């Protein structure tokens, strides 16, 4: 009953609805990365290119956002443009969903917000850039992204290029372990670090093949072990930045945030914008390349998971 009531808040785009009705694999995409993670017009262009990559790979993309008091599963070109262009888009995590839906404004969903909406829509795979995590200095600020709690309880597979080094990646992985969230890696043993390929920390399990990833994920959920799975894949070599450069810029951005007294939900967008400015926009090219690569990995996983669903009982 509760689920039915919740689902009555969903508005489906025609292609997303058709794919869902036909049992075709869908891939959810977040909108905070569009509204708050990249500048206009590169954000809208990238969002469209990512959708096209997913479609070419045989899955249906469903970008998720809040518009006019409804949760939109799949956006039209005009809706995407509005989310990418407007200066009045709320950043919507679990806490913010009721406020923005009840208020009827524009909302861009974070990893946590998108996971909630994807699960309501029955979408198992969600592609993003980087997940939120435990911030550096969290022992003083308590700043731990709600993304991690959502991963603990909402059953969606999240494909990412790891997490940015604006976070404490070691503590982020510890937190995920405590909450029983498996961290899978493909193409390398280590968890990725967004702009760079290697965080220096091992992922829990390396599974390069989409069928293996699907088997792992389906087994977890078949066992009633609700909650998400993180699948990390590194930014393509040609687009990766140097670790020394990004470390220095990250320290500078963190210092600027502290000096300006930035707190709460403003911290992550501030740091992202600061790093973008400090790299003279070069980080944007890296960001775009990694999201596209994540989309290819996510589409393959969605196809494999759809096959495993059609299989007889266990995978
Ligand atoms: N990390 C990135 N790019 C992003 C985000 C995180 O490299 O765009 C966004 C995602 O939407 C993520 C959110 O869910 O920031 C986390 O925000 P917070 O740290 O306030 O929970
Ligand atoms: Mn935070």
UniProtKB/TrEMBL annotation:
One of its GO terms (molecular function) is hydrolase activity, acting on glycosyl bonds. It holds the Pfam family Indigoidine_A. Its cofactor is Mn(2+). The active site is at residues 30, 164. Its EC number is 4.2.1.70. The keyword DNA-binding does not apply. Keywords: Glycosidase, Hydrolase, Lyase, Manganese, Metal-binding, Signal. It catalyses: D-ribose 5-phosphate + uracil = psi-UMP + H2O. Residues 1-18 form the signal peptide. Transmembrane segments: none annotated. Substrate binds at residues 91, 111, 145-147. Mn(2+) binds at residue 143. It is an enzyme of class 4 (lyase). It comes from the Bacteria. Catalyzes the reversible cleavage of pseudouridine 5'-phosphate (PsiMP) to ribose 5-phosphate and uracil. Functions biologically in the cleavage direction, as part of a pseudouridine degradation pathway. Belongs to the pseudouridine-5'-phosphate glycosidase family. This is Pseudouridine-5'-phosphate glycosidase. It comes from Paraburkholderia youngii.
